[in-house]
Amino acid sequence: MTETAGAPKVRISEQTTRVFDRLIQDPSVHRAFDFLKEDNERTTGEQIELTEIEAPTFEEAEKGRLFARKLSELGVEDVAVDEAGSVFGLRKGNGRGPRLVVCAHLDTVFPRGTNVRARREGSRIYAPGIADDGRGLASVLTLLRALNQAGLRTEGDLLVGATVGEEGLGDLRGVKTLFAGRRDLDGFISIEPGTPDRITYLGAGSKRYKVTFEGPGGHSFGSFGTPSPIHALGRAIGRIADLEVPHHPKTTFNIGVVQGGTSVNTIAETAEAVIDLRSVSREHLERLESRVLELIRQAAHDENSRWRRADAIQVRIERVGDRPAGSQSPDSTIVQAAAGAGIAMGFRPILEGPSSTDANVPIDLGIPAVTLGGGGDFGGAHTLGEYYDPTDAHLGVQKILLTILGLVGLAGVTDPLLPKRSGQ
Length: 424
Hints:
- Helices cover 33% and strands 24% of the residues.
- By secondary structure, it is of the alpha+beta class.
- It is elongated.
């Protein structure tokens, strides 16, 4: 077994090493690599084209239609928009291997009306969404062109496309819909901005709640003694802020939005907050969720008790986000494949800490999944100053292509590393 540097470490089996030794020396893979390098400028232009179509979460349809057309033009079969709005089609292999999902996400964090026109400054391209996930979308398309141009025939099938609802309150609805009730998907790769050496293989789960305290309200002087929704919310915030949570597995809480009241001399009728709870452990996340909800209800009770006004304050709790947590071994087949592909290209793989991506859902379901970087340099993600630098970006998609071929097998060269799920 070969070990990568850094912590945690992934051990690369001899089988995995042999597969990537064969692939990296194969002439058809060399042709695909050469094409990806030559296609870098065109890919950047396509990235700009897609970025300049606004796609706030829940409003991805226009960008999805363009992406669907591009998939069809590249020979992808059965391209369709599902009930959530995600776009997927099939690039068939020889039928003797697993089925691997390769995708990016259509939506961005920016509201309708944001100026998404790209501008160049030196080697950088500035535009909201140009990296996250303009780079991922463009990567999917250049990978398909490379497969076609080099005549690469895979053993397994590739389900390629783009999801909706990856960002914010989209709550991963696109990838949740994709996997709902299906048993024919054996692995998953999502593409985000990032360098080729980094591998995301852990999913940070989250629970998000909108909490609203409601009461009769009144004048601050004339109605003094009326329980206040703002005071009740303050009680809840103070108690949540004092919670102790574990460092390992990392578990966090945050109250990110607070609002309510109408004037300085008014007892508010409503007060609300939006709460974010996260953990890489499902058990710890559920434990934190239960405790926070208990504290919120207790705060309403205590505000009523303070003024001896039973039930004056009511609390409404609405779950607005539920992203599953998930973990898998750094020695799992898909992590080994991503690391082995990087090593074959001369990179030292870095296993990232947990984060929230489309890969959360398949990881939670026990389906091998990673999120990989599409290459190039980027910064300012989720800000109006977001930028992308396409210098040497082809290295990212070369690494992803090699990972894909290792997982699903290259006809006449290697067998698939990724097993089919039982029960197919």
